[in-house]
Write a structure and sequence with these properties.
single chain, alpha+beta, Beta-lactamase, D-tyrosyl-trna(Tyr) Deacylase, Chain: A, 26% strand, globular, disordered N terminus, hydrolase
Length: 482
Amino acid sequence: MAYSQLISGSKWAGAILFSSISAQTALALPPVEALPEGSRVSTQIESLANNQSIQSFGDTQQLFPPASTLKVVTALAAKLELGDSFRFETRVIQNQQDWVIQFSGDPLLTNKDLSDMLSQIKAKGIKQVDGDIWLDNSIFSGYERAVGWPWDILGVCYSAPASAITLDKNCVQASIYTNNDGSTRVFVPEHQPIYVETQAKTVTKVEKESSQCSLELTTADDNHFKINGCLVSRDKPLPLRFAVQDTSLYVSRVMQRLLNQQGIAFNGQVRVGAKPNTNSSKLLASHKSPSLELMLEKMLKSSNNLIADNLTKTLGHHFYLQPGSFANGTEAIKQIIFANTGIDLSRAQLADGSGLSRNNRLTNHSLSQVLRYVWENEQQLRLIDIMPTAGESGTLQYRRSMRKSPVKGNIVAKSGSVYGTYNMAGFGLDEKGEPQTLFVQFVADYYPNKKRDSQPTVAPITQFETLFYQQVVEFSQAIPKK
């Protein structure tokens, strides 16, 4: 029996639709009262068995920032277009006297992989490069950072550039130390060709709070990073991770170091781009990435932005037969999904495939459609199987709202968060671990009051999620089995 209920006289006045499983469960509302005034909410719980809405709050056709829940959409498009056997391939070819390294945008390519390719070449008796080395990045074009990526996070590794020339996740490690004289110092391993300068001050906790000071990172040309602000005095170094800003320059310097280590002589220039007229070329070495299935598991479990965005550009390249970009990649995602599933994402505003861009917009309804298709075709897609499990794996392992029974182990989902946004999309499981419901949680414009020491430590979003996920599990385990 289906019925509707209207909350009146409340900041959450709006239609709530239920399809009754039982009188007790159907009376439950999403715990929106836990959220701060002004938050926008759209939630949906659907029965997988009968395609009916169990609980729906807010406008499911309203556009929200999907954040990393968008990765489910990207993963589906990649599965449909590229297939499980797809692998990125990096090749070293010889053309006349030059070497050309044909990069493919492999997001998992490492220093060791490049070194191993050079070892393959040396094993053939080749001990020098007679001409130049070309770093061929022509498989991608356009911006390496999507429109809508905030400028103030471009130096950190979760916003590393999505580039054809990708190495070691386009991320380098360093550490910062506090000194007794009030200064700081930075350590960068010698093998990482970047320069980090610090003018940050060492302060006490009281000084930090009174001055409202924090560490600030700015970037400049030539992979130069500058740290300002202040850091509370500490006994151990603070680990730092920087996103490489100029990937071509970084890899050119890495290549020269690796050639020297391998004893391969090189006196030419490193050039960036596609070398003209490479038809009569000889393959010297190659490297293939792990399979698409393994990459998608890493992408979904750890919410890896670089994998998502390099796959997005690869989809643009593969679908349109032209260099991949954020523009043609996001359009390819829409076209691939519509052609294969009939799901119309034309209203969606997509700037990347990771969800990092603040310009992305997606409706609860569209994401619910994607989840249903994934469930209906799980035997072929195997996407639910590689998503994080509440309280047990991936980004959901330590999520406060999912660490305890009955939620722990009974939800499989993809989380997503950007500033002011907390999302979740996935499936509620029955006692046998089988999906019985799909659900989408979109919370935007979430700006709680600043916590004071005397206030409860549980954040409003955690209170909301804890109760909402309990409802998802209760609904999932109350559905009668056929």
